[in-house]
Amino acid sequence: MLTANRLHEMFRNSFDWNELLRMHAASTSQVMGPRVAVADTSVVVEFDLPGVQSSELDVEVEKNRLSLHVKKAEPSLGEGGQWKVREQGSLDQPMEFHFPFRIDAENSEVTLANGVLRATVRKNAEDSPVKLTVK
Description:
The protein has 135 residues and is of the alpha+beta class. The chain folds into 2 domains: 1-31, no CATH class; 32-73 and 89-125, Immunoglobulin-like. 15% of the residues lie in helices and 29% in strands. It is built from 2 helices and 7 strands; from the N terminus they run ααβββββββ. The protein has helices at 4-12, 17-27, and strands at residues 35-38, 42-48, 57-62, 65-70, 95-98, 109-113, 116-122. A hairpin with a 3-residue loop joins strand 1 (35-38) and strand 2. The longest helix has 11 residues, at 17-27. It starts with a helix and ends in a 13-residue tail after the last strand.
């Protein structure tokens, strides 16, 4: 973890961006993905998307695939500015999730509230098990 003492020591000595990047990478090595909850008839997937507006989102469903693409422009730093360390990476990467069932697009829904995108993906009724009577 990047502590205040280590950061202060780094600034006091000759400043090295590579050292800061190395320490930042070590402190954030645990990759966090979306939260997923599974029920009998649906799956809920939640993504943290702070600062993203609904107009900047494209969400598509096709067969068993949920696609999410954030169209958010990178903030400008002005002439010659360059990010060295960022808490959040670029969001311009499409994300895809493949489910072991066909998605019922008509009954699925996506909401965005307080920086959390929640996709409730319903299983297609045709894929649900049907009970047969034993004769």
